[in-house]
Design brief:
4-stranded mixed sheet, alpha+beta, 14 strands
Length: about 375
């Protein structure tokens, strides 16, 4: 009922805001997306252990439908080379990031990263490219999160960011329903597909070689493989199973019984552990399934914790030309008599300068519904 009403209101709001703007003929003016990213189309999927594996964890239930708006996500886990290129810029522009010893080639995934450093690095990657960041230290979304340990406020419509758990699982599934692993061809796993710890205990683990991956094991000490070493899924994402586990946005709840929404859920508003997905080079087959959930203290940099980056396609008029200590609202885009009003900060200005109280969740839901409507009309590729 709520979702249907929200979609109805979104369509009505699109009509009021867009006016005579022809969504069939005109494309939304958007910032370029890096070639290393792929678009994940909007749509519903079943989240959780859809295969009913007897050795799965209770935190994968109940299986439930989720609608995810379209977004972009990196094909690869963040490599050491990419981490360093942003790290060097960030530490010269007011960011505090921990520099960890790393003894593998630069094409391996960066690991040993805290959740907070992953968040700050995402912001630095945004600012480095002149894009408005996603994470801020204040509810008005004006002071960029660059230092310290704090739970940030999020501008979901702008900048590089961590994916939510729902976004990650939808992307990892590759558009396939009812599968155990990221690939559409089979529900079985072998060392030809992923860097993980093979074990006979799981009927769906049919690798000829057992134990750690023989190509990435030194005297029973396993390690990461270069990003993109194994087949991609149908969306073009690599290493969604094994290698390093990937930080997601969500605070973790230990099952799905508490519903945080059908459209673009973002998890619990508080908690003790942040979500990790995909399993690691040390994980057995059960832990690298697409529905398998991990979690850890966000302040601790375990050696096999890495991440990949997502973003929402953003309007060009939200791009800053230089890093700014305080960011203002994106202006109204005007084109003759036609205009598109973009609500960014969870507040709506009225006549006379009055402002509605902040309500980011409502605005996020409405914004995503509008985006999905325009996308369906071919105006937001």
């Amino acid at each position: 009922m709520k979702t249907a009403m929200m979609k109805h209101n979104a369509v009505l709001l699109v009509g009021l805001l867009v006016g005579t703007w022809n969504v069939e003929m005109r494309k939304a003016n958007s910032a370029p997306i890096p070639e290393t990213m792929v678009r994940i189309p909007a749509g519903e999927f079943m989240m959780g252990d859809v295969t009913g594996d007897t050795l799965s964890n209770n935190d994968e239930y109940p299986v439930h439908p989720v609608y995810v708006s379209d977004f972009y996500i990196d094909k690869y886990e963040v490599s050491k080379a990419l981490w360093d290129s942003v790290y060097d810029w960030a530490t010269n522009h007011g960011y505090s990031l921990i520099s960890r010893r790393f003894d593998k080639p630069s094409n391996h995934p960066m690991s040993g990263i805290t959740w907070y450093d992953a968040i700050k690095w995402c912001n630095a990657r945004s600012e480095m490219g002149g894009i408005r960041p996603a994470y801020f230290t204040d509810i008005n979304l004006s002071v960029v999160y660059r230092t310290g340990v704090t739970t940030p406020y999020v501008s979901w419509a702008t900048g590089f960011r961590l994916p939510t758990e729902a976004e990650w699982e939808k992307a990892a599934r590759g558009g396939q329903q009812g599968r155990r692993f990221p690939w559409s061809e089979s529900d079985l796993i072998t060392h030809n597909l992923a860097n993980y710890d093979s074990n006979y205990r799981y009927s769906y683990d049919v690798s000829i070689t057992r134990g750690y991956h023989p190509d990435y094991d030194e005297g029973d000490t396993p390690y990461t493989s270069p990003v993109g070493s194994f087949p991609a899924n149908s969306y073009g994402l690599y290493d969604c199973a094994g290698n390093v586990s990937e930080w997601c946005w969500d605070w973790v709840l230990y099952d799905y019984s508490k519903n945080f929404g059908y459209v673009d859920p973002k998890g619990s508003p508080s908690g003790f552990s942040r979500s990790l997905r995909g399993g690691t080079y040390r994980s057995r087959a059960s832990s690298i399934r697409v529905s398998a959930r991990g979690n850890f203290n966000p302040t601790y940099p375990y050696d096999w914790h890495g991440f990949r980056v997502a973003m929402t396609k953003i309007p060009e008029w939200c791009i800053a030309t230089t890093p700014q200590p305080v960011y203002n609202d994106c202006p109204i885009k005007e084109d003759g008599k036609n205009s598109l009003i973009v609500v960014v900060h969870g507040r709506i200005e009225k006549k006379g300068g009055q402002t509605e109280p902040p309500n980011p969740d409502w605005v996020d839901e409405m914004t995503n519904a509008i985006t999905s409507y325009l996308s369906a009309k071919g105006s937001h590729d």
